[in-house]
Write a structure and sequence with these properties.
By secondary structure, the chain is α/β, with parallel strands linked by helices. The protein contains 6 helices and 10 strands; from the N terminus they run ααβαββαββββαβαββ.
Length: about 260
Amino acid sequence: MKVHKVTPVRDVARALSDGLWDEATEYLAALAGHPVRVPDPNVLVGWLGGVVAQGLGPGELGELQLPEPFAGYGGTDGTPRLLVVGLNPGLSRDQYFPRWDWHRSPHGRDAYFDFFWQGFSSANRDGAGRPLKWNANRTKSTPIPHYRRVEDVVTPNALASVAWQVDAIPWKSSFGVDRREPGRILDRTEGRLVIPEHRAQWVARSRVKMALAAIHPVNGSRHVLVLGPETVGLLGLASAPLHQWKLVPRGPDRGSERG
């Protein structure tokens, strides 16, 4: 039987968080008009989509909600045995959520990670155990039906213990997936391709592969719950099972292959 090396979930979560925090430093500076060279223009499109989706003007970038490294966890080093993969985060503009202005704080990087690491802890659940979201000043909370449905399928409190949700695309954006060709990312307002298919798939697969390192095998296999046909299509699971993926080591702009 193959032996799977398991990385502590906190370590993987921190790596996902730090990676997006550093990415924000580069790409949001470009969106603000600073003369910086971005490593990947295709990723800049993803960030721009977040600005469009949140209805922000040129002087409001400080209010931009940052991308979601992972959906949340319970604030402890658990032993997740199931990876849950959705498409991308669903947020409202008036929701309490990490924003670009957090970069001005010397503790912003840690606060960004802690927000998600504590996301499904008891402090962010109601009396019935339902995960909550808070309004901007944290005076009012409402349950999040999506996460409750996931836990209804798995087990109560699953997303804080035996399951970990990491969505395929981290950005809140106005982009959708072409239902005719699920690997394509489209601007819903114009129906045009805005992120090359190979780049979107590379982002999604890279995130999932990274997250899988924290999943404890059950009966010799790591288990993944993929939510919805759009996510299945984006990950390419219809034509290749997860265990057959092989990321191209030459870099994200070269796409991905199946091996």
